[in-house]
Task: inverse folding
């Protein structure tokens, strides 16, 4: 069954609508936002990539060793790129994220599939356009040009300028036109999804809004696709999938906890760490979406 017709998509739509109502009518202070974002990241966001090792071609210990060497080698090579050419590494992160976020929404292996590309751009560009000053600070921090101590959490009401409105409309219409061309039969569902996500970004701060979208609209769908792939390809139970997810999830969470304990929190470094585990994960998932 296509993701767009699945129960999960309907559940996500309902959850997004409920979150919009809650955030609009009740005050979500910084502490509440941090707690909710932390819970989502620890329960869904970080674990959703913890089972990449299950899909290796050689299902034995030697295959596991080869997989880990390649996986960690990609991370190390990307870390070197961040160290020597951070601007290029940032651009790679953008491109990879556009592809990965869009691909999970359409379950399409074609890297030139326009609805997929445009949805990935929408998910990442909308919060940046709406909170440009804060987003540029994060990007500068990632390439070593920003000072985290200068970061100011902006709680002021959002006021849109003409260029922001025009950019949102242009990207939104381009995306819907691509849906009309490629998946006309699902136009209404994709349009409602776009409206709900856009409203969420309009009402929420940059980081909190993006983390919720990342967990709700990407990590959940990615996990569902992995479960279906794993149970059908290897004739396993869903319980086996989640049991296998536990060790690497705990390792990832423990590693991040140790980072926060021994180093002062730095928003740029945190996103770099995210990018390092994202690149090999995207390569694994691209193969899964290809069947």
Result:
């Amino acid at each position: 069954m296509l993701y767009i017709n699945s129960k999960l998509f309907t559940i996500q739509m309902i959850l997004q609508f409920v979150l919009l109502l809650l955030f609009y009518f009740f005050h979500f202070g910084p502490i509440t936002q941090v707690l909710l974002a932390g819970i989502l990241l620890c329960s869904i966001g970080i674990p959703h990539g913890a089972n990449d090792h299950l899909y290796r071609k050689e299902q034995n210990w030697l295959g596991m060793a080869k997989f880990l060497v390649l996986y960690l080698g990609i991370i190390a090579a990307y870390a070197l790129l961040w160290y020597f050419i951070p601007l290029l590494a940032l651009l790679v992160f953008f491109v990879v994220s556009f592809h990965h976020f869009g691909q999970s929404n359409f379950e399409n292996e074609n890297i030139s599939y326009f609805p997929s590309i445009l949805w990935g751009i929408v998910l990442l560009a909308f919060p940046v356009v709406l909170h440009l000053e804060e987003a540029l600070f994060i990007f500068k921090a990632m390439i070593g040009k920003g000072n985290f101590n200068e970061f100011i959490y902006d709680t002021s009401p959002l006021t849109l300028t003409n260029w922001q409105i025009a950019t949102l409309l242009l990207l939104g219409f381009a995306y819907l036109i691509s849906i009309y061309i490629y998946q006309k039969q699902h136009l209404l569902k994709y349009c409602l999804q776009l409206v709900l996500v856009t409203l969420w970004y309009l009402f929420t701060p940059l980081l909190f809004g993006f983390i919720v979208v990342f967990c709700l609209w990407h990590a959940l769908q990615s996990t569902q696709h992995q479960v279906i792939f794993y149970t059908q390809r290897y004739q396993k139970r869903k319980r086996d999938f989640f049991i296998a997810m536990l060790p690497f999830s705990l390792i990832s969470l423990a590693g991040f906890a140790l980072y926060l304990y021994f180093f002062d929190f730095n928003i740029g470094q945190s996103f770099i760490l995210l990018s390092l585990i994202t690149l090999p994960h995207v390569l694994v998932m691209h193969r899964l979406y290809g069947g």
